[in-house]
Amino acid sequence: MNERYQMKKRVMISVTVAAALAAASLVAVAPASNAAAKTITLAFQGPLTGEEASVGQDELAAMQYAIKLFNAKNKGKYKIKVVQADDQGDPAQSAKVAPGIASNKKIIGLVGAAYSGATIAALPYYKQRLLPMISPSATRVSITDPSAQGGAMGVPVFHRVPPTDKVQGPSLFKLATKGVSSPKVFVVDDQSAYGVGLVDYMKNSIPAGQSAGFDSVSDKTTDWSATIAKIKTAAANVVIYTGYFPQAAPFFKQLRDSGYTGILAGGDGVLSPTFLTLAPASVIEGVRLTAGTVPLAEIDAKLEADFKKKMGKSSGVYAAEAIDATNVFLSCVAKGVSTREAMLKCVKAYSGKSLTGSTIKFDAYGDVAGGVMNGFEVKGGVIKFTGPVG
Amino acid sequence: MIGSFLDQFWSLTFGGLSLGFIYILIALGYTMVYGVLRMINFANSEIFMVGTFATIIIIRDVFKFTQTSEYATGFRLWLILATALIFAMMVSGTLSMIVEIVAYRRLRRMNSGVLAPLISAIGVSMVLAESVRILTDSRPVASPRAMEKRFIGQFFDAGIRIDNTIIVISALVLFGILMSFVNKTRMGKAIRAVSMNPNAARLMGINIDGVVSATFLVGGLMTGAAGFFYVLKYENTASNIGFELGIAAFTAAILGGIGNIKGAFFGGLALGLLETYASFFLGTQWKAVTVFIVLVLVLYTRPNGLFGEALTQTRA
Question: What is this structure's pTM?
């Protein structure tokens, strides 16, 4: 009886163990077979609707392009998902969407925000939850400037790929005056943080006697006759507009119509394909532009063709930067990173090549050292790359 | 600064004048409605915005101009301009009547007071602006150039450009037509009667709804014409353009005395010139500040605007 009981017990145990083992192995086998594709979630923040929607939509498309390539390469290993945060390029809207992104623990990296104002509004939430960010286009200096009031506000989570307005300001002046024997430069800003900042960084690099004056004009302006009168009075032969393309086009048009024949120039705010549709080709022929970005087609025509094929539309401004920013995150994912902490560490230690072949390595404040500004010119109705502004 | 101002005086003045005439036409949209209903038509700014798009549709889509097209000349040019002007006026005029039916008529019949129609008009205004924003993908839209912007004469140092000249002359003609409509026609008389005393007018057998509709139509026609002139001068528009120009024209109407047609005329001119001179002297960033300081000073001494609300004599 005793022996039989023992026997029964032993059988019971072995059956239980076997069952447990089987169960355990099932558990072990199941993920191996179907979750070999580990899902990683990244986010994009930028204007996806509203006035600035084209900027965000173009960057998002570039991010999705990079992810498409990565997903295809790592089929069965990783699957990257993108959460879209639409801030309309507006700080107030940004402060509304940022808390949701910050508290969504699945998101381990954010490409964005596209705009500096929106970045600054979102930073407190991302810093609190340590969400690593890499912006393709937020170029305001103060975000990473340790001498700014309160120190560099982006530390530790903020990083960016493009050079800042500190580089762009002097480069824009240099490009605008290139080949002009005795330049008299008139600078007009649009009263935005971007436009005023750009002028501030430009001012120091204007040699004595080359400045013909400044004006600051609301970005809602439709009639430019007063500014044009000032430009004429000052007899300027170079006019630089530090604002965005919707105002640049009518301004340049009215200026040319008034009989002005000198040089027209603008920063990356003007560099948009839409700019070309807003003024007669004869008016904007020869307009000089600077930007930290390089169009994909200039890097490699095949790259642009592939982009168009995969995304169904041409690449936009900051496409290269958005791809570079996404690739930083993706290379960390490929190393097995799956938490925000690990991602932040990995981004800080990252060193790799950008699409153009330059080195991407972030300094302590999140900037890439040695950024170069590129020059562009409107020629025959298209924006042509004219090489780095040296 | 004074020396350079004198150099630029005439070219600034011409620029300010043509801007002023655009303000006048939009201000008429506000003033006509206020004269009759004592209500501000806040949708007027969007009626203007739609007028600018109507103009671009004619130039770009009907006559197929692009940014690289040859300029039109001679009879074809005048045909294009006249078509665009009439189309913009008709679209805005019709829209204005629809706005009245949607936002005002029922509330007016229910004696809702002043505030409810104010809000419903703001609502209509937002619906219009947002719809156009969605349709245009939030992008500004440019009008291809149909007419070469040449200088047709010289006045002291200032070149006189053809588009500014067309604007000033046509706006004067339109203003003259409006004045004689209000003062000489039967419907004009009815509008004036309703404006003076709606109840007495009703007792005299005047169809109030008809008069109100006609007022909105006339206001919309003028505002639509402003949309055409705006595109002729600046060649671009956007869904959010109404706000800035609407505020400016509304200010012009208040400055001259709202409800008063002559007030809208001089208010618009004064504002156009004041904005232009202030921008030149103080920098464009001081434009709005200067304009509103002047407005407040005027209202301190003449609370009903330069020409007053003395509607019975000069009003619509």
Answer: 0.77
pLDDT of A62 higher than 70 = yes
The answer to whether residues B137 and A53 touch, using CB atoms and an 8 Å cutoff, is: yes
Measured at the alpha carbon of residue A294, what is the angle toward residues A161 and A351, in degrees to the nearest 5? 35
Give the DSSP letter of residue A352: E
Tens-digit pLDDT profile for residues A64-99: 999 999 999 998 899 999 999 999 988 999 999 999
Q: Are B35 and B260 in contact (CB under 8 A)?
A: yes
Closest CA to A109 of A331, A334, A362, A339: A339
Chain B residues inside the 8 Å CB shell of A233: 4, 7-8
Read off the pLDDT of each residue in A344-371 and give the average, rounded to a whole number. 90
Q: What is the pLDDT of residues B232-264, one digit of tens each?
A: 999 889 998 998 899 999 999 999 998 889 999
| Torsion sign across C-alpha atoms A156, A160, A161, A166 | negative
CB-CB: which of A223, A233, A249 is closest to B4?
A233
By residue range, what is the domain housing residue B37? 2-314
**Residue B272 to residue A384: CA distance in whole angstroms:** 39
Q: Looking at chain A, which residue has its C-alpha nearest residue B22?
A: A223
Q: Which of A220, A233, A277 sits opposite B142 (nearest CB)?
A: A277
CB B301 within 8 A of CB B294: no
Of A212, A184, A216, which Cα lies nearest the Cα of A200? A216
- A109-128 per-residue burial string, b: 16 or more CB within 10 A, e: under 16: bbbbbbbbbbbbbbbebbbe
Which pair of tokens denotes residue B80? Answer: 């294009």
Which residue matches tokens 């949701």?
A100
| Pairwise CB contact (< 8 Å): B244 & A222 | yes
Q: Find chain A residues with C-beta within 8 A of B238's C-beta.
A: 246
Go through the domains of chain A in sequence order and give each one's CATH number. Answer: 38-163+296-357 (3.40.50.2300), 166-291+374-388 (3.40.50.2300)
- Cβ pair B15, B276 in contact under 8 A: yes
Residue B202 Cα to chain centre, angstroms: 30
Q: Which of A258, A239, A80, A242 is nearest to A168 (CA)?
A: A242
Low-confidence ranges of chain B (pLDDT < 70): 1-3, 309-316
CB contact at 8 A, B161 and B149: yes
Token pair 């390539």 in the structure block, residue: A69
B201-223 per-position pLDDT tens digit = 999 999 999 999 999 999 999 99
Whole-angstrom distance, CA of residue A249 vs CA of residue A255: 10
Please give the tally of structural domains in chain B. Answer: 1
The share of chain A scoring above pLDDT 90, in percent, equals 58
Burial A301-321 (b: 16+ CB within 10 A, else e): eebbeebeeebeebbbbbbbb
Cβ-defined contact of B236 to A216 (cutoff 8 Å): no
Q: For residue A275, how many other CB atoms are within 10 A of its CB?
A: 24
CATH number of the domain that residue B176 is part of: 1.10.3470
- Other C-beta atoms within 10 Å of A179: how many? 7
> Which residues in B lie closer than 8 A to residue A250 (C-beta atoms)?
234-236
Nearest CA in chain A to B284: A217
From A184's Cα to the closest Cα of chain B, the distance in A is 17
Q: Looking at this protein, which amino acid is placed at residue B164?
A: N
For residue A243 the two structure tokens come to 């604002």
